[in-house]
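Deadline looming. Please check this record:
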Amino acid sequence: MHKMILIACAFALMGIAVAADAIRLPEPDKTGGLPLAQALAQRSSGREFADVAVSQQDLADLLWATAGVNRPDGKRVHPVAMGRQDMTVYFFTKDGAYRYDAPSHTVEPMPNVSGDNRAATGSQPFVPTAAINMVYVQDMSFWAKSDGERVAGANYGFAHAGAMMQNAYLFAASKGWSAVVRGYFDEATLKQALGLSDTQRVRLTQSIGPAK
């Protein structure tokens, strides 16, 4: 609890409104950046990261570009099958772990994670040095019928996560950052650390941040 209060106070001192445990991010910058064709030309996987923190504005822009709301009806920058918003972005930084709430453009600190646990998101040697380690989580309850059966398309979460991580890749390319998607992770460790429910599944992880 003390850790969460200190984080909230730090955000407040930076001029970011805080409500309860939710930390409001700066409004995303929806202008500028590289032209799309140039970002596509420069998109690649990079595994060398400078172990530095990113600004709150960069964090806000990254999260919005990956999974934010881009229309008045609440729809997102990434496509989903049948309009079912079954995906949530969690992420680890040097300060802790957080959940991104797209509709409110806020982040919520995860109470089970204190301090730097970036290494928990993967065993590759570069993982602990990436400024941000994203965790793409699908909630299978969005696909449950009233009788408990699953409707066709429950595994679209892999496609949804793929669209989200590509958005993050293009953001990284536009910033000159490194980024790499990772399918090798310990799901049980992540589920426990993030307090995920039985219906939530980790689909992909991604390391992203300034390059070394």
